[in-house]
Amino acid sequence: MVLPIVLFAGWFWLSDDSESFYAPPLRTIFTAFKDTWQPERLRADVAPSLLRLFAGYLLAALIGIGLGVAIGLNRRLRAVLEPILEFFRAIPPPVLVPVIMLFAGIGDGMKVIVIVFGCVWPILLNTVEGVRAVDGVVLDTARAYGVTGPARITRVILPSASPQIATGLRQALSIAIILMVISEMFAASNGLGFTIVQFQRSFAIPEMWSGIILLGLLGFALSLLFRLAERRALRWYEGLRAARRRAG
Amino acid sequence: MTSARRGNPVLLGFAGLAGLLVILELLPRLGLVKDRYLPPASRIVAALADEAGTAAFWRALGDTLYAWAIGLLIAVAAGVLAGLVIGSVPVLRALTASTVEFLRPIPSVALIPLAVLLYGTRLGSTLLLVCYAAFWQVLVQVLYGVADVDPVAEETARSYRFSTWGRVRYVLWPTALPYVFTGVRLAASVALVLAITAELVIGAPGLGKEIATAQNSDAVPTMYALIVVTGALGVLINLLTRTGERRLLAWHQSVRGEVAI
């Protein structure tokens, strides 16, 4: 943790007598941060953003994992859908904003749908890969012990595929944050992205910088939370890998 | 199970694409979706053909690809260099670990307002976003790659008195190379996403700006046609980087192992 502090201190010190309009002293940015992100503003702008983010992300996770298991288990379905999925994944998600605006207007629904539509592909494709890679011996053993139906999916397939699913969820998280901001920059009346663009347009530079810093902190905090959750959920997998490494 | 019963995957894939086109044609034709929102596939294709006949479209495509290529090049060069230096000096590695972890998850779009202020709607805006986003992909992969160097090979090189340059060239680089390629592959698609996002949101010249223009002038089929083009670009870039990787790393265990299985 030394270097970030040194960097911040360096920025603070070097920028202290900055006259530049675009790069104000960090001291000014900090003051602006304190004045700008008051509780009422957090409630009015940050909370709606986060709610859309979580709604979209959770929906995308449900849809992605559900469809991914179905597609991963069915060879023919996979062959039919593979090119389509590859194509949809390759579309840069932000271009979906204008399309979804056509269907869903510019309300909360639009933003949630945009996030779902952008996030679902990495989750879906990673789930498909994970389900495909389930050990055949494990599957046969489960069958021999009479584990079938829903139990086969929840007890055998999902746990085996979970490291891969976690990879998809991690990729989707950063896409979700990007889309949250983009959809609000495009058309919104509140939200973090909207507020930052508003500051930029009115040349409130220190406030704009404080928004950028807040977004950075948010991205960092969310990825930290994700990593904690992942480490908890996949503890068995880390242990397995460590054991294999020792044996190998 | 014979392969005939399973069906040929390529054929099934084509059937899937054809099915999608039919559905996209029928949904608006049957009135299930308003054709103002989703025009029939045939009209999107017609709009695509129209676009392909205009010079503006090709200029926009060129602008996008130019920003993508330059941004990717800068990001890869900087990422590889920084990764090799940071990765091979343990002190630097320990010092920067938390900084990398802190800076990487900052969403690149947070820089959009800054880019607008600094460069307006010029190429620089796009480049700033592309470089920032692509750089981390490369850097992190290179760091993994450097950490993967076999200690025995490293110590052997040392006892044979390889120079620093020799160790980098003959031990570090070949080990890190597959990781570098993974990084480049990831960075190439991220760079495309960011290039088009920057054009869409900021209005820098390129396909993204054309999409925004089409949306504002209510040219819905053209908008869909341009989105299809961006998707096709993405697929193409994926395919190219993947084949390039396989070609250039044909000697490497990771690729040879794949072939053997």
SSE arrangement:
The complex is a heterodimer of chains A (248) and B (261).
Chain A: H1 2-14, H2 26-36, H3 39-73, H4 75-90, H5 96-104, H6 108-132, H7 136-144, H8 150-186, H9 192-201, H10 205-233, H11 235-247
Chain B: H1 3-6, H2 9-29, H3 41-52, H4 55-88, H5 90-103, H6 112-119, H7 123-147, H8 151-159, H9 164-202, H10 207-216, H11 220-248, H12 253-260
Helix pairs in contact in B: 3-11, 4-5, 4-7, 4-9, 4-10, 6-7, 7-9, 8-9, 9-10, 9-11, 10-11
Give a structural overview.
The complex is a heterodimer of chains A (248) and B (261). Chain A has 248 residues and is mainly alpha-helical. Chain A has helices spanning 2-14, 26-36, 39-73, 75-90, 96-104, 108-132, 136-144, 150-186, 192-201, 205-233, 235-247. In chain A, helix 6 (108-132) packs antiparallel against helix 8 (150-186) and helix 8 runs antiparallel to helix 10 (205-233). Chain A is globular, with a radius of gyration of 22 Å. The two termini of chain A are 33 Å apart. Chain B is mostly helical and 261 residues long. Helix content of chain B is 82%, strand content 0%. Chain B has helices spanning 3-6, 9-29, 41-52, 55-88, 90-103, 112-119, 123-147, 151-159, 164-202, 207-216, 220-248, 253-260. In chain B, helix 9 (164-202) packs parallel to helix 10 (207-216). Chain B starts with a helix and ends with a helix. The relative contact order of chain B is 0.12.
Q: How would you concisely characterize the structure shown here?
A:
The complex is a heterodimer of chains A (248) and B (261). By secondary structure, chain A is an all-alpha fold.
Shape designation of chain B: elongated
Q: Give me the secondary-structure category of chain A.
A: mainly alpha
Sketch the major β-sheet of chain A: none
Distance between the termini of chain A: 33 Å
